[in-house]
Design goal:
mainly beta, 6 strands, Flavocytochrome B2, Chain A, domain 1, binds protoporphyrin IX containing FE, single chain, 4-stranded mixed sheet
């Protein structure tokens, strides 16, 4: 799997580059096509970072990631 740094992930926040990426448990997912992550924002949460610790605030489980293909690993 490809590896990306925090800095590379941070640029994919829906503002600075066209791609929208989020990381969960060290795995990076491309959510660019998700209507729910438009402009990098999902409720009060922003893309471009590892959101592992924030999943506890969500009304859903990590199963929301199942439909996304992992694109890389956060190092
Ligand atoms: C206040 C916090 C949050 C709320 C209210 C919220 C709400 C929702 C809702 C209603 C959906 C669509 C229905 C469903 O699958 O249950 C969804 C999908 C999703 N959520 Fe959240 N969520 C929150 C936080 C988070 C966090 C912190 C993450 C990442 C760790 C996350 C990642 C996702 C993903 C990847 C999807 C799937 C998007 C898609 O299918 O296009 N959510 N969320």
């Amino acid at each position: 799997m490809k590896t990306f740094t925090k800095q590379q992930l941070a640029l994919r926040n829906g503002q600075d580059k066209p791609e929208i990426w989020i990381a969960y448990q060290g795995i990076i997912y491309d959510v660019s096509n998700s209507k729910m992550w438009r402009n990098g924002k999902h409720y009060e949460h922003w893309a471009g970072q590892d959101l592992t610790d924030e999943l506890k605030d969500a009304p859903h489980t990590q199963r929301v990631f199942e439909k996304f293909i992992p694109i890389g690993q956060l190092i």
